[in-house]
Specification:
Layout: H1 3-7, H2 13-16, E1 29-30, H3 39-42, H4 48-51, E2 63-66, E3 68-72, E4 78-81, H5 83-93, H6 100-103, E5 105-106, E6 114-115, E7 121-129, H7 131-135, H8 144-165, E8 169-177, E9 181-190, E10 192-198, H9 201-204, H10 208-211, E11 223-229, E12 243-244, E13 263-268, H11 279-308, H12 312-342, H13 344-360, H14 363-369, H15 372-385, H16 387-399, H17 401-415, H18 429-442, H19 448-463, H20 472-477, H21 484-497, H22 503-509, H23 514-518, H24 523-564, E14 577-582, E15 586-589, E16 592-594, E17 597-599, H25 600-606, H26 617-624, E18 640-645, E19 657-659, E20 665-672, E21 690-694, H27 695-705, H28 711-715
Antiparallel strand pairs: 1-14, 2-3, 3-4, 4-11, 5-10, 6-10, 7-9, 8-9, 10-11, 11-12, 13-14, 13-19, 15-16, 17-18, 18-21, 19-20, 20-21
Helix pairs in contact: 5-12, 8-24, 11-12, 11-13, 11-15, 11-19, 15-24, 16-17, 16-19, 17-24, 19-21
The structure holds aspartic acid.
């Protein structure tokens, strides 16, 4: 990537110019804004250009997207992220004999490092505003679904054209403001990632779901991995001949850590926020979708936990799935509580009432924007009307693996017949290998009795759907007998006869033509083929909904900017962002104050010997011996374990480096407090707090507990 292409960053004018940030603490700032943030006045001690500058190899080259975030800490591709981010890869590398999940893992030499299956990493190389090019695809006379398809196709053209110009790179066009601004990002894409040092689960996940999304926190949620390239230095799939990737920049580690009140900033890839969404959307989330998901995930988790009881092999198989569902479920519970507590939907509705008054008071505004809020409200009413059906279709795919495999095979066969640019994105040539890999890897979490129970429940729910949402294919299946017994018999028969659990069968299936699939007698293929039209219809509905909402969102943003007299930051969308703040406690409730640091003494205090509060015995011995070395917190006289600060983060910021005023690594972000789960809708300095594992705990564990101090050399930390 040349300097010139990187300088294209300057084109990001739409996001930068005229932006007044009224509350500087709120904000996941696009990286293009770093020069305009005046971070020096906030406490930054290095030039902002050291974090990001189109002219030089700045800190952003040390930051990776690994689903969530990671950061390089050595010139040899060593990077840190969270234990929970590497969890799935650690699980797939584990067996009941070599259980790295339970016992942890440490590679004493490069040759001992183990592939982190399914993990890839991306580094942002450059970005460029392509809004006019994308929006040119919109033509008068297009239906709403056609409008969406035209934009999607234009984006695919830009992406494939860019990737052909820069072989080996990944290109993505990200929608920054819905229907309004689009930015082309070019990434270095690394495909060979390996496990280096993973603490035991009793440290990396200490406190489990009980403590997840909570403070005080005592979790050592970190892991070390390494990225590799081919022997020629170019990104390549795993091969024993590969060599460590040499990043343009890596972070310096500061073993001295931070104190209360200190300035800090984070770089990372926050996933999704909804701060510019209208009241109708928030009400749908609060009243319909989140309660549904909480109930459904709770049921599935209970089933999986029961299946794993007294059966370590099954428990290991299901561990990552349980963790993923439980993480989302508790996040939603936090959001639901928070939304009620601050009366979010009503507040948003009131703001919209005021906005509508402002629009109606001016004939010009009324003509351009008068229909925006009513039309958005209507679109969410329509979504609610069909939501039961939509939720069943969605969870059939996400919760029933045999069905998902069959559906993916049916869909892949149909999509891969089409010209590349007209396919749904996961079936395009550039994504197909990854899609196949994802599906084949997902088999590791398959356990028939759990799968079977999920299918049975969802089919029963489908038969109870109201008139508007009925699924014809399901009705037809049970036309002669729709009793629960008939459903149970049908489901049992499906699992008895299917071959879908067989890896070779599935592998071969994901390459077949529609006619070949239709000729196979597998009951899940039949069920998927029956339901395929309903999924096509749903995809069309979603495209039409997006087609309608895109224009409305774009106009809503325009008029809100006029009304409030300020510009907005784009919602999080998995692109690289910066957020800053200070180490700071808070008052979660009347009479209660949360201090910003926890300590090793707190880990031992919580250690009950029962899950999830077991900790390895040597921790207590080391603590009693006060063997803290240089990692002791001067005021706390103990090892600081986790810390709290008032940045603006969300899912995807897991693993984000916490950086001090000099841009050195002092912690690894991994969570937010329960109150802060509503960040995704509304951020506030009074309740929004993020949580990191303190670097002093990480280094102390590495040196004293795991005997991994040899890694310090390559990180440039003096022993
Ligand atoms: N723990 C979170 C996650 O799982 C990080 C966050 O949302 O703050 O992504």
């Amino acid at each position: 990537m040349t300097r010139k292409q990187i300088a294209a960053a300057a084109l990001l004018g739409a996001l930068v110019t005229g932006l007044q940030v009224l509350r500087a603490e709120e904000g996941m700032f696009p990286i293009s804004m770093v020069p305009s943030l005046n971070l020096a006045a906030r406490g930054l001690k290095i030039p902002a250009g050291e974090i990001f500058s189109p002219e030089r190899d700045s800190l952003i080259y040390a930051i990776l997207s690994v689903g969530a975030t990671g950061s390089f800490v050595s010139p040899q591709g060593l990077f840190v992220t969270n234990h929970h981010v590497a969890f799935g890869a650690v699980q797939s590398a584990s067996t009941t004999e070599k259980d790295y999940l339970t016992n942890g893992f440490l590679a004493r030499s490069r040759g001992d490092e183990v592939p982190a299956k399914g993990m890839t990493a991306r580094i942002t190389e450059s970005f460029q505003d392509v809004s006019p090019e994308v929006l040119r695809a919109v033509q008068p006379g297009q239906s709403l679904a056609e409008r969406t398809r035209a934009i999607e196709k234009r984006i695919k053209e830009i992406v494939t054209e860019t990737e052909s110009r820069f072989p080996g790179k990944r290109a993505e066009v990200s929608e920054m403001f819905i229907g309004r601004t689009y930015v082309l990002f070019i990434y270095t894409y690394l495909k060979d990632i390996r496990l280096v040092y993973i603490p035991p689960r009793s440290i990396g996940e200490f406190g489990g779901e009980t403590d997840n999304w909570m403070w005080p926190r005592h979790t050592g949620d970190f892991s070390f991995l390494r990225a590799y390239t081919g022997p020629d230095g170019k990104p390549a799939d795993y091969s024993p001949r590969n060599i460590p990737f040499q990043p343009k920049r890596h972070l310096k580690v500061n073993p001295a850590g931070l104190q209360e009140g200190d300035f800090l900033f984070l770089l990372g890839y926050p996933g999704r926020t909804y701060r510019h969404f209208p009241a109708g959307y928030l009400a749908y989330e609060e009243e319909v979708r989140m309660p549904y998901v909480v109930e459904w995930y709770g049921r599935q988790i209970a089933l999986m936990e029961k299946a794993g009881e007294g059966n370590p092999a099954v428990a290991l198989k299901l561990a990552a799935r349980i963790k993923r569902l439980a993480n989302t479920m508790k996040n939603y519970q936090g959001k639901l509580q928070g939304m009620r507590k601050i009366d979010l939907v009503r507040k948003k509705a009131e703001e919209e009432k005021e906005l509508q008054k402002y629009i109606d008071a001016d004939a010009g505004l009324r003509k351009t924007y008068g229909d925006v809020l009513p039309a958005l409200a209507q679109s969410y009413r329509e979504l609610r009307r069909m939501s039961d059906r939509e939720l069943i279709l969605e969870h059939l795919r996400s919760g029933v693996q045999m069905f998902e495999f069959a559906m993916a095979a049916v869909e892949a066969a149909a999509e891969r017949q089409k010209p590349d640019l007209e396919r749904e994105s996961e079936y395009m040539d550039r994504n197909w290998a990854q899609t196949r890999r994802r599906l084949l890897l997902a088999r590791a979490g398959f356990f028939a009795p759990v799968d079977q129970e999920a299918l049975r429940e969802l089919l029963r729910r489908a038969l109870r759907l109201g008139e508007t949402g009925r699924l014809k294919a399901v009705d037809a299946l049970f036309a002669s007998d729709s009793s629960e017994k008939a459903v149970d018999a049908f489901v049992a028969e499906c699992y008895r006869k299917t071959q879908m659990a067989d890896e070779a069968f599935l592998d071969a299936l994901l390459g077949k033509k529609p006619a070949e699939i239709a000729a196979l007698p597998d009951p899940f293929l039949k069920l998927a083929a029956d339901l395929y039209p309903a999924y096509r219809e749903l995809a069309e509905t979603r495209k039409a909904r997006k087609g309608a909402q895109d224009g409305l969102f774009a106009r809503l943003a325009e008029v809100r900017e006029k009304f409030l007299g300020k510009n907005f930051l784009p919602d999080a969308n998995s692109t690289l962002r910066l957020t800053f703040g200070h180490i700071r406690g808070y008052e979660p409730a009347d009479g209660l104050y949360y201090k910003p640091f926890t300590t090793l003494a707190g880990v031992l205090e919580k250690t009950s010997g029962e899950d999830p509060f077991r900790s390895p015995a040597p921790l207590a011995h080391l603590w009693k011996a006060r063997d803290f070395g240089r990692f002791e917190h001067p005021a706390l006289k103990d090892i600081p374990v986790c810390m709290l600060y008032d940045t603006d983060t969300t899912g995807g910021n897991s693993g984000s480096p916490v950086l001090d005023a000099r841009g050195e690594l002092v912690g690894i972000n991994f969570d937010r407090t329960f109150d802060a789960t509503i960040n995704d809708y509304a951020w506030s300095s009074s309740y929004s707090r993020s949580i990191a594992v303190d670097i002093r705990y990480v280094l102390w564990l590495a040196e004293k507990f795991s005997g991994a101090g040899f890694l310090f050399d390559e990180m440039g930390i003096r022993q």
